[in-house]
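Subject: Predicted fold for DDE-1 domain-containing protein, 160 residues

User T.R. writes:
Posting the sequence so we have a shared reference for the thread.
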Amino acid sequence: LHWSERRSTKAAQKLPSNHEEVLTNAFLREAYIIRDHAIPAALRVNTDQTQSIYQQGTKSTWNETGAKQVATVGQEEKRAFTLVLSISASGVLLPMQAIYVGKTPVSCPSPKAPQYDDAKKLGFRMLPSKTATYWSTHETMQDLVEKIIAPYFEKTKKDL
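User M.O. replies:
I've generated the structure tokens; pasting them so everyone works from the same file.
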């Protein structure tokens, strides 16, 4: 049949017309602050968030290889969480934060789940969003700073 697994299609995000200028200015501001304040690599942390899908739902289907448009039904039925990752410029990976849809800790992985204890020993944080989505909130970002980033900075400053 010449079919392969395909994802449904949608329009790509648009970049502002001056995106190169915006990025250059941000880079120069950061370089200026790092240089003038002698901020060591270990105390520069970059954080990002990514959607992690653990139940695909029907966003994928089978269709003819090379098809440009692929229709699906029920795309909102996927199950996912937000994984928040932080790494220092010196290469230290900080503990991760995972945010799950739901109001209570019951929404998060069970303490009986495989490798749960290992994740907790590594400092991973598993939190309910307390909303109808798995997106970060002000509260989860505050938890990230208070429970992961600030303790890392405190320990690293002592070690330097």
